[in-house]
Write a structure and sequence with these properties.
heterodimer, A: 119 residues, mainly beta, 4-stranded antiparallel β-sheet, 11 strands, 0% helix, B: mainly beta, 7-stranded mixed β-sheet
């Protein structure tokens, strides 16, 4: 079964660092871009960036460039999203998703990782 | 950035009704348009890609149309399990962008 499994919920304080993960299985992990999408409480979907696990080529949304780092370890089929200094406004659900198909739709989604940052 | 504007923001319809959601892009995106369904408390699910290609396993009451800047998601006969928020998404050029979502409620 093709799936993306994300790490569990996190509760952190402002200023702390955090790295969440997304592990792919059931397909050739290095052959598909993986994206990250933010959903703030009660709000819509926001595209953060994508990474190609084979060569770590990364593209960021201008809204998130410099705020987060997307990385990958292809030896363990895992992609990461990390913050060096969290803010309360980073409180959100974060989804990873595989990009595929004729026009790069997100066809497989992780279950989401809830990040809560208290000030 | 390409802006994606959905309308309406929410709608309420009866079981069996025909429902349409529109998505307008701020510039032409050919058919690089995808639709997702997000049920309450769940993650998004891809329904349609390339504007009109139904994903495997998605009920045939869902359909998509359009090209260029104007797109439509149609549910031909609304069912109780269609209660969800629907998002359009352009993958024509980065940064990819989503519409703001359309919440579909059942009367």
């Amino acid at each position: 079964e093709v799936q993306l499994v994300q790490s569990g919920a996190e509760v952190k304080k402002s200023g702390e660092s955090l790295k969440i993960s997304c592990k792919g299985s059931g397909y050739s992990f290095t052959s598909y871009w993986i994206g990250w999408v933010r959903q703030m409480p009660g709000k819509g979907l926001e595209w953060m960036g994508i990474i190609y696990p084979d060569d770590s080529d990364t593209k960021y949304s201008p809204s998130f460039r410099g705020q987060v780092t997307i990385s990958t370890d292809k030896s363990i089929s895992t992609t990461y999203l990390q913050w060096s200094s969290l803010k309360a406004s980073d409180t959100a659900m974060y989804y990873c998703a595989r990009q595929a198909g004729l026009n790069d739709a997100f066809d497989i989604w992780g279950q989401g990782t809830m990040v809560i940052v208290s000030s | 950035d390409i802006q994606m504007t959905q309308s309406p923001s929410s709608l309420s319809a009866s079981v069996g009704d025909r429902v349409s959601i529109t998505c307008r892009a701020s510039q032409s995106i050919s058919t690089y348009l995808n639709w997702y369904q997000q049920k309450p408390g769940r993650g998004p699910k891809l329904l349609i890609n390339v504007a009109s290609s139904l994903q495997s396993g998605v009920p045939s009451r869902f359909s998509g149309s359009g090209s260029g800047t104007d797109f439509t998601l149609t549910i031909s006969s609304l069912q109780p399990e269609d209660l969800a928020t629907y998002y359009c998404h352009q993958s024509y050029t980065t940064p990819w962008t989503f519409g703001q979502g359309t919440k579909v409620q059942i009367k």
